[in-house]
Amino acid sequence: MGFRVTTLARPLLTAALTPHPLDRYLELLDPMLVRGESRARVVEVDRSIPRRVRLVLVPSGTWKGHVAGQFIQLGVVIDGVRQTRCFSPANAAGSPREPIELIVTAQPGGLVSEHLHAHARVGTVVSLSAASGEFVLPDRLPTSLVLISGGSGITPVLSMLRTALASGHTGPITFLHYARSSRDVSGYDELRALASRHPQLDLRLIYTRTPGGGHFAAAHLDAIDGIDDAQFFVCGPAALMDAVEDHHRAAGWTQPLHREAFLAPTFAADPGDATGGTVTFLRSGTSVDNDGRSLLEQAEASGLTPESGCRMGICFSCNSIKRSGAVRNLRTGAVDTESDTTIQLCINAPVGDVDIDV
Length: 358
Ligand code: FES
Hints:
Largest sheet: 6 strands, antiparallel
Distance between the termini: 50 Å
Bound molecules: FE2/S2 (inorganic) cluster
Low-confidence stretches: 1-8, 13-17
Oligomer: single chain
Number of helices: 7
CATH superfamily of the largest domain: Nucleotide-binding domain of ferredoxin-NADP reductase (FNR) module
Structural class: alpha/beta
Shape: globular
Helix content: 10-25%
Order of helices and strands: HHEEEEEHEEHEHEEHEEEHEEEE
CATH topology of the largest domain: Rossmann fold
CATH architecture of the largest domain: 3-Layer(aba) Sandwich
């Protein structure tokens, strides 16, 4: 007797030949059920701080959790195209079954942050990469912690603070945070409550738009309890991290200082030598006149959609092979002339003719 492919069996057969066959069906039933990637559903949305949205998400069963300080790439579909950006969970590291807290600041021109700020609602489902990053609390906590942040850089160090306290850490913790005003501090009430419950927590909130406040000054790091055994973790605008690092050096401190540039820096191409020449995206057969912007921006302006995430040189998801030509690293200024080498599209701009495998 011959086998007759029924209406139901045909799509099942098709699905069986795809990399994650069941996911196509599970996606229709409930996008949280897919097995090929991690997802998370928004269960809480708070927009009480201007330009910021705090999201609580329940992850799907495939999520492996994070280490305090790491970031994840969150994917959301905007106008039919999946866009991904990096965000650092603010919740304490713990069981991967626990909710994830993200604090997203709407960056001017930030496609994903603006979208989440405007449109995220309870029930929204996003995709999540595995957590990664080197800016993490060590397995064995140092005796003393100095956590410093500015603006939305608070999220990874808030996770570190919550993780350290939840683990029963009793050593001194100095938490120095810069915000425009008390209303701009994410988790303000919780921080005050933690400081009153944990006598070893020295909470230093500095308001940059308030009389008597201001930006980093050496005095803000005076009288750190346990300074000899401290490790420093700094996250925020580059100017803050540079100032803290300069002070750390000038004070002769040799204790480790870890920093995380989790805010998009302003990349400035050098107009003197970054423009001119032709950028050829080999795989797509597209060529454009080099306008001096990053290779990622020039590719996107040409209608291409190379993979990207953080757009600031952290996640490496935009890695591509440069076949020939010279590029300038927009963060360091270094020029790379080697052929057949891997570069990050988001932080490299062409210097003259460049052939790239995109
Ligand atoms: S997009 Fe993350 S490194 Fe380029």
